[in-house]
Amino acid sequence: MNATTDKDPLVQEQIYNALCYLGESEPEEILNCCDEYLRQHDKLAYPHRVIILKAMETVVKNNIALLDKSTAKEVIRDWQQAASDVLVAVGQRFINKVMEEVLTKFQPGILPHYFVMQTFANLSVSNGERAACRPLC
Fold first, then answer.
1. Which one in 1, 89, 107, 124 has a CA-CA gap of 20 to 30 Å to 30?
2. Chunked in runs of 10, what are the mean pLDDT values of the chain (137 residues)?
């Protein structure tokens, strides 16, 4: 997975494809490895972190019926937290675009998902008044 830091988009795509391919035969093992790698490399640049997160998403989507309930719950929570963290980090530079995307998850009459609320709150904290004072409409 260290090759995800390669700047060549073809190498990055090959890593993504390899993780997805391996995830077809051993989804829990790949998900656990990706999770462990992300935990060990918490300073990994976000573009490279996204490659691994996208591979994890694909493995989960393609193998959801095969995953053990406890593994699925843990991995999905970790994946959602990591994705939220990526949005917050990107929001430190592109707050308007990230806020627009997060706000699309607020639907009338539907309680927003926990991680949508957490992302919204963390964006507000990390960007101070710029995010917190932005109108919702």
1. 89
2. 78 92 93 88 82 88 83 73 84 89 88 89 80 49
**pLDDT of the residue at 137:** 44
Note the Cα 111 to chain centre separation in Å: 21
Q: Determine the Cα–Cα distance for residues 13 and 4; give it in Å rounded to an integer.
A: 9
For helices 95-103 and 69-91, what crossing angle results, to 10°? 140
Kindly give, in sequence order, each residue whose CB lies less than 8 Å from that of residue 24, ignoring residues fewer than 6 positions away.
59, 62, 63
Spatial contact of 10 and 48, defined as CB atoms under 8 Å apart = no
The residue whose two tokens read 């997060």 is: 102
* Per-residue buried b or exposed e for 51-89, using 16+ beta carbons within 10 Å of the residue's own CB: bbbebbebbbeebeeebeeebbeebbebbbebbbbbbbe
CB 39 within 8 A of CB 81: no
Which are the contacts of 77, defined by CB distance < 8 A and separation ≥ 6? none
List, in sequence order, the alpha helices (H) in 92-113.
Answer: 95-103
Token pair 């699925």 in the structure block, residue: 72
